[in-house]
Design brief:
By secondary structure, the chain is mainly α. Helix content is 63%, strand content 3%. The protein is elongated.
Length: 182
Amino acid sequence: MTVAAPLADLTPYLLQQAALRASLLQTRFGFGAADWADLRQDLALDCLRRLPRFDGSRGNWQGFVRGIVRNHACILASRQIRRWQFEPLGEDDGSESLDGKVYDASAADFRPVLELGLDTERVLAGLPEDLQSIARYLAEMPVSAVRLKTGLTLSEINRRIRRIRAAFVAAGYTPGSRGAAR
């Protein structure tokens, strides 16, 4: 390994990138305020562990740091999403939201969320089979993975996404709306 920059130059940049990604994880993936320092440290340590693999002939150290920190942030975000999807509901009578506040689950009105889910299923059921499968794939994976899974080109997937969106708009769902007009 030949590091193009001394560790003294690398450290502030690494900590800046780790702090940036920790903030993004915290705001977009529901990590608590107390998790920020741990996230930053985890991202920085992962990069430092991988630093011996840096090859200056393949790029500069800033790009290496950005890539490593970004990739590890994606892993942490994926773990958080899986935790949301598969974590069983607690036995307590409150539930913690993404904003960290505890709400009384017995008093919560879940009807709007349930209705939205049912309405979404209704709209999807009215689509042709190929659009249904694309919509379900897109709910679980990025467009690049859908391209690999289906063998479709990006323009073909974008056309199908436009058709799916048109079905939702026709059903009364538009960006910013809270559901179909009843």
